[in-house]
Amino acid sequence: MRTNGGTQMLETTYRETVRAAIREAILKDSRVFLMGEDVGRYGGAFGVTKGLLEELGPEKILDTPLSELGFTGAGIGAALGGMRPIVEIMTVNFSLLAADQILNNAATYLHMSGGLFNVPLVIRMATGAGRQLAAQHAHCLEGWYAHIAGIKVVTPAVLEDARGMLWTALEDPDPVIIFENPTLYNMKGQLAADAGAVDIHKARVRRAGSDVTIITYSASLFKALDAATTLAQEGIEAEVIDLRTLRPLDDDTYLTSIAKTHRAVVVDEGWRSGSISAEISARIMEKAFYELDVPVERICSVEVPMPYPRHLEEAALPQATTIVQTVKRMVHHDG
Amino acid sequence: MTTKTARRRAVLDIDRDHALHLLHEMLRIRRFEEKCAELYTALKIRGFVHLYDGEEACAVGVMQALEPGDAVVATYRDHGQALARGVPMNRIMAEMYGKQEGCSRGRGGSMHLFDAKTRFYGGNAIVACGLPLAVGLALADKRLGRRQVTCCFHGDGAVAEGAFHETMNLAVLWQVPALFVCENNLYAMGTALRYSHAETNLAKKAAVYGLPAEVVDGMDVLAVEAAAQKAVAAIRAGKGPYFLELRTYRFRAHSMFDAELYRSKEEVEEWKKRDPITTFARYLQEHEVIGPADVEELEHRVAAEVDEAVAFAEAGTWEPVEDLTRFVYSEGVRA
Amino acid sequence: MAEFRMPSLGADMESAALVGWRVKPGDHVQRGDVIADVEADKGTFEVQIFEDGIIDQLVVQPSDTRIPVGTVLALLRAEGEPAAQPAERAPSRVERLAPEEARPVEQPVPVQPQVVPVERRLKVSPLARKVAAELGIDLNTVQGTGLHGAIERADVERAAEARKLAAKAALPPAEKAPPLAEKPPAAVVEEKAPPLTAEKAAPSALKTKSAEQQAAMRRAIAAAMSRANREIPHYYLQTHIDMSRALAWLEAENLKRSIKQRLLPAVLLIKAVARALGDVPELNGYWIDDHLEMQEAIHIAFAISLRQGGLITPAIHDADLKSLDELMETLHDLIARTRSGGLRSSELTDGTITVTNLGDMGVETVYGVIYPPQVALVGFGKVTEQTWVENGMIGVRPVITATLAGDHRASDGHRGGQFLDALNRHLQEVEKL
Question: What CATH code is carried by the domain that includes residue B154?
């Protein structure tokens, strides 16, 4: 532990903070419980819930059978019935089995019932590629889910958000899906010991700059920050924005940035066509057209089912080097 | 077929008032459905409408076993359950019209009737999608220590869906206080039971998961009532979920625009001889529990209620277009 | 008498054929009875009636024809009601609730993609366009260094800083101004401060500008003006023009017009210049590299003062082809859009000659600086009462002093003089303008 001007800071990992968030929520509110595949005895597919079953008991940490549709629907029912369940769907790849419940029930109940029944459900899912898990285990579908009216979609990238978004999501009366990228689970960092709930509706500027605005979310944030460091050595100051929430999108933050930098690039791990980066690019065109000095760029995954070998996977995903090259092409003469 | 089809000619002491109540409830449904057919042909009601003629004994019989605090989940063929549950007829009719005085504010229509006071959770139009919800609702009751039962109506078609099997498994695994009522009317839209189920004995399919499963004559309101009372008593006593297969028949088409090419008129006429309302009325009169004047009086009362409901719906108002985007997210909360 | 209509049986049912009746006139029917069979896309349906009564008339006979939902098929009378007179009734059309009959939807004919001739469009970023408009920079003469050769903001700023800059623009502070390059980008200065005139509107410092920024701006303006003066060999000619006939004609014309449509003297001057250019075309062109490129079209850049100080010179396109009323309308429009910042870049870059009329500022004579790549600038002072000698008679006439600043590379004093002469002639016959 280190102190930092009075606030006690802890050295921790993303995984540990998510665990701490789940634990705290369950201890604080008796309506909260977590259910999903292998969350209990196995300790969580990614080790996130290790130890929680032993500490909190099987009613709070509930191992489910392989029934994504069934237990997601049950989560919706439990939320309707007055509980505050956290449904963990092991990965977004398997969430497709539950998509009907998410779209046709969770997202619609409030509207279909004319305001009678809200669904205060939280779903956590792992998402993204980068570990050579091949085509069926590498999807990045946050953008797809962000298309659905009636739910909220958040993508915590930094420790503070991994720790603090869960509680806010649980307090939200409407369904919230939290996407965690497993390549971040091992990420180490400092976090205030008393870090608490954070908002789930605003983006944040993670690095200030004046030459280009890099808009991104989740694991790509760190690639963007790496790229920004490289660019700075060449005199290009990038402003990096962590979207934090894909639905609703916080337009104000990135539009304000673009009014300053006049250049924008969106980094999105989803497949390019019809992605959330396309939505953001359209909004920038609609609302900041006259601020743009160059066209909006998008760096997305190449549109292929994810291949297994490492060099191909890396070529398919957005990388820091791609970001650097793109920005240099956009700026190409410094200021 | 090895199932003992207990054709329960009820050996209840039939209280006259109770008998009249059952008859009245079934008549309300029948006359309401007839009125809906008429209004649909006159373009007052639009979209999809699925009528319950012939199945009245199912909804009415089961409802006798439920208490006000219990929850009901139904399918798109939900008028019968909604009426029998106590959702006011005029609010249902207004909902059919799409008026904002409807039980779902006009937003749901025929397939999405909702009511908070009677814990009526729809009106669900995706076949089998209500089953997992029921598990969750029942789980919440159990966890929160409420001695309530969740009654989930579904059809023979739902038994083919994966959701049914996941639900049965989860329900028994978690021992949730749920009653699953399968209204087997022998057709999933236009496909007869024998063309969609390798094993047509549906109760047997449920029993395999480890819950009590009985077959009941769905045209006999007393038999249904008796079976439901027994099942619900067991559930309330903490014995876990229960499954009832009610064998019944719908006299009308699947929905309004169905030419019924898939079944013969003769078959329909055969089943009409077992009309739950006329057979029950005859039975009561034969046993001198009621007289023809009673039936006439009930018909008048029902006719008046239906007329009043239509008048209420006709006089209803349209929700302002400006309110279109309300109830996507809960109000009073930041989107 | 009640009407029995073709029912709607489904969301997509719009019409059906009447296959057959199950009743005939005189039959008693009860609510719920099936009285007809109809055939729609999905198959044959039994149709129920929802009233009690007696069939009075079968209005439509069975046939293959598709009948729209809502059409009256039969008439029903109540018990005791007299029968209706058999009438020649065509099936009445749709009541207000019935949907429209499905019309065959015209299938779009595939259109051959046209080969669009490639226009030489200027690639300019939206931001650069915006800034150029603000600074009054001619985009045609800005060197683009952006992606695909596009003009970016920095290019516009560079161009602006190389010349005198418009006061209105939100200019970046001096630290960003590049030093005056050895090779001048061919930028056009749209604002000028004629050295001999009392600054007609002292550049009122924008309240938001710091003194430092103002100083930087003036330095840049000075540099730009110096360059123009240095590079273009100017010659100046002047003449006095009797405006009595022109003004008298104008007064008479304006009596016929509403206030809104009244013509200002400025349009006479503009049109006269346009006509005179027809006589001496060498003054209507661009000096590019080392030669004159005369322009066919006559776009007169007219100097308009900005409230905050400074001038902007948007072009009046095809001034020679416009009537006086059209010129007036254009002028009004340009002034309004100049003030609101809504000028188009083509208006700022297309001028083939500039006219500056400082008359209402009280200046009598204007010695201007030419805006490259133009090769001439016409200046007008105010109209003053002067003694005038004509035919040996002394009188007092309203007189305007017209000056020509000419680029000696493109024209000489002889031609310049002929221009002013032509100008005078046209202003003596303004009714012919």
Answer: 3.40.50.970
Q: Are C58 and C87 in contact (CB under 8 A)?
A: no
CA distances to A76, A179, B184, B262, C131 from A70, in Å: 10, 20, 22, 32, 59
φ, ψ of residue A268 to 5 degrees: the values are: -140, 120
- Identify the domain containing residue A123 by its residue range: 2-192
Please check whether residue C176 touches A, CB under 8 A.
Answer: yes
- B77 within a domain of the structure (yes/no): yes
> Closest to A201 (Cβ–Cβ): which among B116, B137, B334?
B334
Average pLDDT, chain C: 79
C170 touches chain A (CB under 8 A): no
pLDDT band at C257 (very low <50, low <70, confident <90, very high): confident
Question: How many structural domains comprise chain B?
Answer: 1
- Please give, rounded to a whole number of angstroms, the shortest distance from the CA of C108 to a CA of chain B: 29
Using alpha carbons, list the distances in angstroms from residue A53 to A19, A58, A63, A87, C196.
12, 6, 9, 15, 90
Taking residues C363-389, report their average pLDDT: 85
CA distances from residue B14 to B25, B222, B280, B285, C414 in whole angstroms, order as listed: 16, 9, 12, 12, 126
Using the beta-carbon criterion (under 8 Å), do A81 and B132 form an inter-chain contact? no
What is the ipTM metric for this complex?
Answer: 0.86
**Residues of chain C found within 8 Å of residue A290, distances taken between Cβ atoms:** 126-127, 129-130
Q: Quick check: C380 pLDDT over 80?
A: yes
Is B9 domain-assigned? no
A contacts of B167 (beta carbons < 8 Å):
70, 73
pLDDT of C211: 60
Cα separations in angstroms, B9 against B2, B259, B275: 20, 34, 15
Region B196-218: mean pLDDT is 97
**Model pLDDT for residues B270-288, shown as the tens digit of each residue:** 999 999 999 999 999 999 8
CB proximity B144 to A under 8 Å: yes
The count of domains in chain A is: 2
What phi and psi, each to the nearest 5 degrees, are found at residue C315?
-90, 140
Instruction: Write out chain B residues lying below 8 Å of C11, CB-based.
Output: 46-48, 256-257
**Cα B305 to Cα B88, B277, B298, distances in angstroms:** 10, 18, 10
Chain A contact partners (≥3 CB pairs within 8 A): B, C
Q: Is residue B149 helix, strand or coil?
A: coil
The whole domain housing C242 covers: 126-432
Q: Are residues C178 and C72 in the same domain?
A: no
Do C233 and C311 have their domain in common? yes
A47 has pLDDT over 90: yes
Alpha carbons C55 and C57: distance in angstroms, whole number: 6
A330 touches chain C (CB under 8 A): yes
In a domain, C251, yes or no: yes
* Residue of chain C whose Cα is closest to the Cα of B37: C9
pLDDT digits (tens, 9 = 90+) for C91-146: 443 333 444 555 677 777 777 766 666 666 788 999 999 999 998 888 888 888 88
In a domain, A164, yes or no: yes
| C278 and C368 assigned to the same domain | yes
Distance from A176 to chain B by nearest Cα, in Å?
A: 11
Choose the closest CB to A289 out of C126, C147, C150: C126
- Report pLDDT digits (tens) over A197-232: 999 999 999 999 999 999 999 999 999 999 999 999
Predicted TM-score (pTM) of the model is 0.71
Does residue C95 sit within a domain? no
Distance from CA of A281 to the nearest CA of B (A): 22
Instruction: Note whether A2 contacts C: Cβ–Cβ < 8 A.
Output: no
Domain assignment of residue B65, yes or no: yes
- Output the domain CATH number for residue A81: 3.40.50.970
Residues C44 and C167 in one domain: no
In a domain, B3, yes or no: no
What domain range is B297 assigned to? Answer: 16-312
List, as ranges, residues 165-204 from B with C-beta within 8 Å of A: 166-167, 169-170, 173
Q: Which chains touch C (3 or more CB pairs under 8 A)?
A: A, B
Q: Say yes or no: C142 and C72 in one domain.
A: no
Within a domain: residue C351?
Answer: yes
Mean per-residue pLDDT of chain A: 95
Question: Within a domain: residue A49?
Answer: yes
Choose among C373, C358, C306, C370: nearest CA to C169: C306
The residues of A assigned a catalytic role are 68, 137
Q: Measured between CB atoms, does C168 come within 8 Å of chain A?
A: no
Q: Cis link prior to C373 (omega < 30° from 0)?
A: yes
